[in-house]
Amino acid sequence: QVQLVESGGGLVQAGGSLRLSCAASGRTFSNITMGWFRQDLGKEREFVSGINWSGSTRYYSASVTGRFTISRDNAKNTMYLQMNSLKPEDTAVYYCAADRDNPRGPIPSRTYDYDYWGQGTQVTVSS
pLDDT under 50 in the chain at which residues? Predict the structure, then answer.
C-alpha cells in the first residue's frame, strides 16, 4: 500500500507560479513511478506529468510542456510539480498517483495504469 497526500495548491493570478508536493508513505517510494493528473469540474481526469523511480525519465502533456517541471526526492519520499506561467485553463484539482508495477518506465498516461491516488489539491488561476 502507498498513501499519498498532496499539498501546495491555492489561488494564483495568471502568469504566477505554484509548487505542488506529494508526500508518500507505506511501500518504498523509490521503487515506483509517480504521476500528476488534474481534473476540472465536468471534465475527465487528465494526465499532466510523470516521473520514473530515479527521475531519469520524465514525461509531460503537451499543454504543460515548457511551463511545468516534475521532480522527486526519494530521501524525503516526496514528489513535486513546479508550475510556472500559470493560465486560467490550468485551474483544476491536482492529484498525485503511483504506479506500483512499472518503476523504470515508460511513463504511463492513463488513469487506470496507476494504483494509488491522493485526495487532490485545488489549484485556481484567476485571469
Answer: none
